[in-house]
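Quick question, first post here. What does this chain look like in 3D?
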Amino acid sequence: MANSFSFKDTTLQVGDTIAVDYRVKESDDKERIQQFKGILTAIKGESADTRMITVRKISKSGVGVERIFPTASPFVAAISLEKKSTYSKAKLYFLEDLSDQQLRQKLYKQKKSVARRNAKSSTKSKKPQSSQ
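> Answer (accepted):
Ran it through. Tokens below.
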């Protein structure tokens, strides 16, 4: 199993915040698109035909909601990337026990080596150049 996949020219990986546009059929002739925005917690399936993704969000009342979407379903209208994550685990089931602040710290923190490299490069560019 992989912890990333491509869906219509967009590469998504576990830990990313995504928005899934899902077609909901209300009656025989009425159909609307419902957006489910949350964190991609798991990717299951080997091929594009059998691939399913699990998305978790916190509702307004504070209850965690998980939903499984088959990516080959005709009811999935679009999947868009909202925020990229730096996390590299295959499954994120530990998110159930974390608060919002702890979750943001775990998923979207910058690696220490990358942060140091960025800090060094920014200090080099700030040095005034001497005129000769």
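The first helix runs from residue 100 to 108.
The CA atoms of residues 51 and 76 lie 13 Å apart.
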